[in-house]
Task: structure prediction
Amino acid sequence: PGGGGHALRLGGERPQYFELLARPLGPGTARQGLVLVIREVTRQREARARIRRQERLAAIGQLSAGIAHDFRNLLSSILLYAQLSQRQFDLKSGLAQNLEIIIGESRKAADLVQRILDFSRSSTIDVRALDLQVLIVEVLEILRRTIPESIQITFAAEAGEYIVAADSGRLQQVLTNLVLNARDAMPHGGELHFELSALGISSTQKPPVDMLTGQWICLALSDTGIGMPEEVRDHIFEPFFTTKEVGKGTGLGLAQVYGIIKQHHGYIDLETKLGEGTTFYLYLPIYLAAAEAEPVTESSCFALPTGQAETILLVEDDLDLLRACQELLESLGYRVLTASNGEAALGSRQTARWAKESSPEKLDLVITDLIMPRMGGRELVVELRRRNPALKALGVTGYVVAGQKETLRACGFRDILRKPFDLDTLAQTVRRILDE
Result:
């Protein structure tokens, strides 16, 4: 510290930090002694360290989201072109097998991108009222089959209800990642303990982390594994940071956990000591109001639904993806107009003529990327619906932030497709919207 002071660190299970300041007792040079001021600053240092970590993670998340969005465009093109090639009838057996490998590897890459988007808090979550205690019991029943018998899993919960507003699928991913991380930290076996408790934070209390006042649910996951040193702990939630051997992990598991908990307006903290295990603390706000959720439907059809000569305006700034989608839709029997951005779409004479509600040849559907140069998809659809209020729209994007889906629906979007999507998903979604 400035002003001639000194800093002191006392080691131990939890290091303590002090600031020491000495001042002479008496005026001028006639010193009659010293006044020594000792102030503990452990909490302040820990708070500053947390803020620095959060700022670093936020910056990494912003960069990761941009990269993931661009990568999803590439994956969408790869998937669609590979699946279009599969539809040819004269494929040689070796080529068919190669296409299957391309599609399979593309899906793995898409899962990797999803983890990055989870970390950057840019993925879509389906929030509804959820009993966290029931979810944990169900997930543990499944995970016990994949965890070695040398690891004992226990679960305890204080009496009470543990209802949160959450996406069950994303929280299952959180629990799975944490359990697998604990398994890797206990190669020779050990104990993994789950504990649920309620936590009330008032304005006069010091919260465990920088939490807001209110009612919280705390889930603690403790293992008896190898623990981690301080330098590892400081980077544990960063994407692609891993202490595992090459090929044993991507370094995205805990980064994904961090992002999902943050997207649920929660907090995450941990305590660890080298050789003595690790405890992760997850804090989620208690359920207070009804959370709306949309039903999730998955297509199981083998034959792709075909078009009935409907006219579709397709707007996408990635030209490879634009051509792939156009080729697919035309092969299914649709008439397709294309544009590379919203401004180009509105400037097209064909679009201007067909977008009118009174036109004998009118647009049946607009499929548009949401984020494009010059004019995005939302602005385009708003302008087109001024001319034809009944016009239907399908949005396409790499990610949709929480709350944006409702705004887009109010603008006329019937659904949102997240990249990368496959041939079947696009065909089924387009047909469903047109038939509504």
Q: What stands out?
A: The first helix runs from residue 42 to 86. The radius of gyration is 28 Å.
